[in-house]
Amino acid sequence: EAESKRLNEATGASQEMYQRARKSLSAGVASSYQLRDPWPIYLERGQGPKVWDVDGNEMWDFHNGFGSMLQGHAHPAIGRAVRERYEQGTHFAAPTEDAVVVAENLSARWGLPRWRYTNSGSESTMDAIRIARAYTGRDTVMKIFGSYHGHHDTVMVSIGVEYDKIGDHENLASLPYGAGIPDATVQMTVAVPFNDAGAMERRIIALDKEGRKPACVIMEPAMMNLGVVLPEPGYLEEVREITRRHGVVLIFDEVKTGLCIGPGGATRRFGVMPDMVTLAKALGGGLPSGAIGGTEEVMSVVEDGSVYQVGTYNGNPLVVAAIRANLEEVLTDEAHAHLDYLNDRILAGCRRVIEDYSLPGYAVGLGGKGCVTFSPTKVIDYETFKANQSAELSDLAWLFNMNRGIFMTPGREEEWTLSVTHTDEAIDAYVDCFEEFAQAITS
Ligand code: PLP
Q: What are the required cofactors (predicted)?
């Protein structure tokens, strides 16, 4: 309560902005994920690893735009690319050379030969699923319980909340995440637990017998919407094997893992090659962006014109110029080495605190992403997350952070994202704050 009061007192201008915003902006925010109790924090500006809110509070940014700002705020290389492109025209709905250069760069990074652009992660997963459905001629989509792939109907299923009412993986029903999603669409999406390749194969076989074999499995290779849940050794290899055996398209949704955990994402880091990859977030250097990569076979349905993968702003010149600068000048191998170094430092710091104070939790992460999962046992899937993760500690840790100049994502399923502009100073500020939190809850 004291922490809530302290934050409320420090964010009076945000409260005022909220009162004003609610009169014109639904619920006072631009996206429902920006809501938090009792009011959202309105930001004014960002520079490198820091952000400032409308109250003038200066904070180290570990939220980083839900993982989009890997390059830090107002990066000069992105700024230059955007300014130069602006002078030459920002939108034609015709391809520019940057669109080609970026596709070549992504092909080299991911080892997938054919690319297309979108404007967000949701569009990337929506279009990838359509391509997989066209390629296989099937409708059913398989996903992982608790995974988030964006806000289009097909994937707003079995994400959480309602699924608690089932609690039985073998009698799985598909449930919508929020209202307005047609039941017919919900029934076409089927979920299986993460880190259980056997359950996936059994479900594929059962669906096949019912005459509704899945077109694709869409999954994050490392789950980044339950904190961070890494694949158990061998799991991704088995998934690859199973999907290949059953002729099911494997889509790695790398919207979050993508550029954050290595130059070629989880695909390269784990060494398992999917049929398709979806990217967004950290791709665009802070501009709305998205991309889909695929094998020649799968993407043939785009090339022969049977699938319309379209969008007025796809490959927008301003966006592809920013992506190009991001890939060529910012997210270099050295930058990724720096992110790995920083993440090792923050993970080591958090692990030390957890041990010193015997906290019920553990620190986990990869590349520029990580979190402390407040669970006495290891989380391997949604079921174990739901059963063991402490919402109370995670909410309290967020308040502690905010009150001590650490800007973090409010959701208990979220993780930190570092940026290439973060330094030891930022990392140590985070760990110090975490230690203060540990002291407070154990004293
Ligand atoms: N896929 C994953 C794994 C995500 O985490 C998200 C967003 O958080 C999306 C897709 C959707 O991306 P966007 O919010 O850009 O539509």
A: pyridoxal 5'-phosphate
Does ipTM exceed 0.90? yes
**363-405 pLDDT per residue, tens:** 999 999 999 999 999 999 998 998 898 989 999 999 999 999 9
Q: Does the annotation count 37 as an active-site position?
A: no
Q: In what order do the strands lie in the sheet with 416-417?
A: 362-366, 369-373, 416-417
Domain that holds residue 274: 76-330
Same domain, 227 and 241: yes
- 3-state secondary structure string, 301-321? HHHCCCCCCCCCCCCCHHHHH
148 belongs to the catalytic site: yes
Contact between 258 and 279 under an 8 Å Cβ cutoff? The reply is: yes
| Active site annotation includes 281 | yes
Does the beta carbon of 122 lie inside 6 Å of ligand 1? yes
Give the whole-angstrom CA distance, residue 366 versus residue 73.
Answer: 21
Q: Which of 330, 365, 390 is the last residue of a domain?
A: 330
* Residue matched to tokens 């109907």: 153
Query: What's the domain count of the chain?
Result: 2
d(CA 415, ligand 1 centre) in Å: 14
Same-domain pairing of 186 and 297 = yes
Same domain, 110 and 155: yes
Say yes or no: CB of residue 256 within 6 Å of ligand 1.
Answer: yes
Among 42, 148, 163, 177, the active-site one is 148
Does residue 356 share a domain with residue 325? no
- What is the whole-number distance in angstroms between the Cα of residue 292 and the centre of ligand 1? 13
Q: How far apart are CA 288 and CA 378, in angstroms?
A: 34
CATH number of the CATH domain containing 117: 3.40.640.10
Q: Ligand 1, atom 7: nearest CA belongs to which residue?
A: 150
Do 341 and 311 fall into the same domain? no
Tell me which residue of 159, 168, 220, 166 sits closest to 195, measured CA to CA.
220
Q: Kindly state whether residues 93 and 198 are assigned to the same domain.
A: yes
Please give the Cα distance from 379 to 206 (Å, whole number): 27
pLDDT digits (tens, 9 = 90+) for 231-288: 999 999 999 999 999 999 999 999 999 999 999 999 999 999 999 999 999 999 999 9
319 plus 341 within the same structural domain: no
